[in-house]
Design brief:
- The protein has about 550 residues and is of the alpha+beta class.
- The protein has one domain (about 35-540): Cytochrome p450.
- It has helices at about 5-35, 55-65, 65-80, 100-105, 115-125, 135-145, 150-175, 185-200, 215-220, 230-240, 250-280, 290-300, 310-340, 340-355, 360-365, 370-380, 425-430, 435, 460, 480-500; strands spanning about 80-85, 90-95, 110-115, 180-185, 385-390, 395-405, 410-415, 420-425, 500-505, 510-515, 520-525, 535-540.
- The strands form 4 sheets. The chain has a 5-stranded mixed sheet with strand order 1-2-8-5-3, with helices on both faces.
- Belongs to the cytochrome P450 family.
- Its main location: membrane.
- GO terms for molecular function: heme binding; iron ion binding; monooxygenase activity; oxidoreductase activity, acting on paired donors, with incorporation or reduction of molecular oxygen.
Length: about 550
């Protein structure tokens, strides 16, 4: 073989170097592609539809009010942690184990984040606010809003809640004076919710309890669940879990979401303008602890806690929508349960009558055990949000309350979760699990919360969240406005139950259906929309 010339030699070296570099790069890529943690395969229910996976079954169960029965069946068959077929054949994990749920929720916004398609839907409807934000952005936004939901702030809002409740009382008495004896209570619960969040949170009176019909109410009430908003909307929603950008294509659903965003922006601009005028005229004391006052302060702050103008508007939209829907939902279900359980309604009325006045915030919190029991049972049995679906942003290992057996037969006491894995936590199942709450877990029993009459089982006491109920979630994303919601609902019930008796049209067993909106609101089965007619009578 003839000796190589210098140029030939250098060419060989370059070729070998390039080959070696390519080999090392390939090894690095392969190593990066293989996750450090692998999510083990778990037994789980078969998916009835390839496109949506098990999410189709969950959605149908929610729409028919049978979601708890579905999760009961799955947990009995596969255990408290099981595999879940996700859209287009991908694999996820469902968690119904309390210890695992507590761990996951404690890392919400950090390790576990919203699915991309969900973030897009939230951004389209309300903007980059606290429901949309993750990690440090979420922490910054939450810190700016927290003082508006402190005990002292809630105490100052209670008078607003009573003013609204007494407006309902006056309106209903006028209706009964005409000889009518039935009232559609859910529309009044909606007006109560909107006026409360408007006045208490933003110093803005929508006047819906005085007969006004704000445009924003029409937008809220027109919202449908994504899977029920037209063929194109449904197809893009299904495919959005794999191709999130498709959700930005204009459809019936997306245009409705952007309509809400636009409508609420005008409201937010008006609120901000009036609040800033108050500050200029020396009335800033009135806004000091209000949501709008804190938002203005955050917008004008310097450093890492500053909120942009778009973030400020997003918080207004988010809090209006969340406050409107959840309060309406909870008041409606509380009255339904009290109609289904007349003895509970009478006992609550007696407790409130014995107090002899409107309860203070402290009395609502600690001095009225049966009112508290009614509230706790309502939110335990009827959570506005039933499941939380997240994606693991990092590899994680989740501790388990009990050992589980994987599909391969391996017994594990902790659950490895690989980055990118979809994880679903069923809040409603944990709220109603017979293993945790006992054989009467599905029954409305306010007594279980009263010392000396009921005793929470050890399993229920291990549940994190608000008083051992996961309805407000837990961890970094625990509902910021939970105290606002508690005070608002309890104040309304205190006035209404003390002054009126309620009954469902066909008695306690009147069939209740599901209306598919932003939340799945209750409705009479005989009604097309979210309407609940009740027989209402004055209390002498």
């Amino acid at each position: 073989m003839p000796p190589l010339s210098l140029p030939q030699y250098l060419d060989k070296v370059h070729a070998l170097s390039a080959g070696l570099f390519a080999f090392i790069a390939a090894l690095y890529y392969i190593r990066r592609s293989v996750p450090a943690v692998r999510t083990p395969k778990h037994k789980g229910p078969p998916a009835s539809r390839f496109l949506l996976g098990a999410l189709a079954d969950i959605s149908e169960a929610l729409n028919s009010g049978t979601n708890i029965a579905l999760f009961d069946k799955w947990v009995k068959e596969y255990g408290p942690v099981f595999g879940l077929k996700m859209p287009f054949g991908s694999r996820g994990v469902a968690i119904c184990d309390v210890k695992a749920a507590a761990h996951m929720l404690s890392k919400d916004t950090l390790t576990y984040r919203q699915m991309k398609f969900n973030s897009i839907i939230v951004e389209q409807s309300v903007g980059p606010g606290i429901l949309w934000a993750e990690d440090e952005v979420h922490r910054r936004q939450r810190r700016g809003l927290t003082p508006a939901f402190s005990n002292s702030a809630i105490r100052s809002y209670v008078s607003v809640f009573y003013d609204s409740a007494y407006k309902i009382k006056g309106a209903w008495e006028a209706i009964l004076d005409t000889g009518a004896d039935t009232i559609e209570i859910q529309s009044w619960a909606s007006r109560y919710a909107l006026d409360n969040i408007g006045i208490a949170g933003f110093g803005y009176d929508f006047g819906s309890l005085d007969g006004n019909r704000p445009a924003v109410m029409d937008y809220f009430n027109a919202l449908k669940s994504p899977e029920d908003a037209g063929v194109l909307s449904r197809i893009l929603f299904l495919m959005g879990s794999i191709f999130p950008s498709l959700l930005r294509i204009p459809t019936e659903a997306s245009l409705l979401l952007t309509g809400i965003k636009g409508s609420l922006k005008h409201v937010a601009e008006d609120m901000m303008s009036k609040a800033k005028h108050q500050i200029k005229t020396g009335l800033e004391k009135e806004l000091e602890k209000s949501i709008i006052g804190l938002l203005i302060k955050s917008e004008n702050a310097t450093g890492i806690w500053t909120l942009s103008e778009e973030e400020v508007f997003a918080q207004v939209r988010t809090l209006l929508l969340a406050g409107y829907e959840t309060s309406t939902f909870t008041v409606s279900w509380a009255l339904i349960e009290l109609c289904r359980n007349p003895k509970a309604q009478e006992r609550l009325r007696k407790e409130l009558a014995e107090l002899g006045s409107d309860p203070t915030w402290e009395q609502m919190s600690y001095g009225l055990p049966y009112l508290n029991g009614v509230f706790q049972e309502t939110i335990r049995l009827h959570a506005p949000l039933n499941e939380i679906l997240r994606t693991a942003h990092f590899d994680d290992v989740i501790p388990l309350g009990k050992p589980i057996t994987t599909a391969s037969g391996e017994v594990i006491t902790e659950l490895p979760i690989a980055k990118g894995t979809a994880v679903l936590c069923s809040l409603s199942y944990i709220n109603q699990s017979e293993e945790l709450w006992g054989p009467d877990a599905k029954e409305f029993k306010p007594e279980r919360w009263i010392e000396g009459e009921g005793e929470l089982r050890a399993g229920a006491k291990a549940i994190p969240g608000y008083h051992h109920v996961l309805t407000f979630s837990d961890g970094p994303r625990i509902c910021l406005g939970k105290a606002f919601a508690v005070a608002s609902v309890k104040a309304n019930l205190a006035v209404l139950i003390r002054n009126f008796e309620f009954a469902l049209p066909l008695g306690p067993d009147t069939p209740i259906g599901v209306h598919k909106g932003i939340l799945r609101r209750p409705k009479l089965v005989s009604e097309d929309g979210p309407r609940i007619w009740m027989n209402v009578r004055r209390v002498n």
